Amino acid sequence: MSIMAYNGGACIVMTGKNCVAIASDLRFGIQQQTISNDYPKVYRVNDKCFIGISGLVTDAQTLHQKIVFRHNLYKLREERDMSPKVVTNLIANMLYEKRFGPYFTEPLICGLEGPDNTPYISGMDLIGAQVQTDDFLVVGTMTPAMYGVCETLYKKDMNEDELFETISQCMLASLERDALSGWGAVVNIITPTKLITKKLIGRQD
Predict the structure, then answer these.
(1) Rounded to two decimals, what is the model's pTM?
(2) Domain residue spans in the chain?
(3) How many alpha carbons lie under 13 Å from residue 16 in its C-beta half-sphere?
(4) 3-200 belongs to which CATH class?
(5) For 165-205, what is each residue's pLDDT tens digit?
């Protein structure tokens, strides 16, 4: 088994019209053994930027702690929050710095960029090679199942309600097809004025 699939889990980020969504499943396991059913892989950096980290849980926690530390330092020096693009470059540099003994994680970054709140999503592999797009990105053990559903259901310029419905359907449909992910999901919708967080109840087996 790949070390990236050792703990299971998966994340999706998706863009809408002046909003972005990020979702992850809630299962934390060790191979086929389920340890917890309330472990989201989504972390808040600030009000307009969230990250989802799938892969080895210990490395994901370490990476998250380092990101929080760097963000707090940045906030003290610059007196403002990091934008999603800055967070992306920060994480890419941190991962590339450790390329000879990498963190076994695949981060996704999403948020609203700049004063006009442009939706922004990006992802990277375990050594920080970036990919940026304007529709959706998926990582984790249920990636093969997620791609087909996301490509089928996604459409451009969805409002926040349509975006929630789409990402929820993608998540729940994919959870049915992967034994290493599941036990429900959590969805975060970021808009210019508010943050919406909802839990989805999936199969509990």
Answers:
(1) 0.90
(2) 3-200
(3) 21
(4) alpha beta
(5) 999 999 988 887 777 777 889 999 999 999 999 998 877 76
